[in-house]
Amino acid sequence: MLEAVLQQVLTKLNELQAEINNMKQTVATKQDLENMATKEDLKAMAAKQDLENMATKEDLKAMATKQDLENMATKEDLKAMATKQDLKMIQQAVLETNEIVKNIEANQKRQECILDVLSKRSIEHEAQITDLRYVK
Hints:
- By secondary structure, this protein is mainly alpha-helical.
- It has helices at residues 2-26, 30-34, 39-44, 48-51, 57-62, 66-69, 75-80, 84-135.
- The chain is rod-shaped.
- The N and C termini lie far apart (184 Å).
């Protein structure tokens, strides 16, 4: 009978030893836990709702490639372009030029009329001179 009790104790010890070995393999050690994130580390990480506004792989695939961007204007290109103020000054210069051209056109029409009158007078004078020659 003592032998049977000892056998039961030995069996129980073997079972406990197997459980201990299993626990050693599956339970994290102190070193394993030192490399784990702390509560503070987890608080600093992005939450699921923070990630909802992030671009997906599909979004990134749809974005412009480097080749698409080659034809885009650079900051230097934009700096060289006329500003709104420059355009206002150009518009003012165009308006002033239009006014000058209108004045020149008016003067030219007036001068054409004067030339017509002078041409007619010149022709009349030629005719009168010719008449005077015949009178002699």
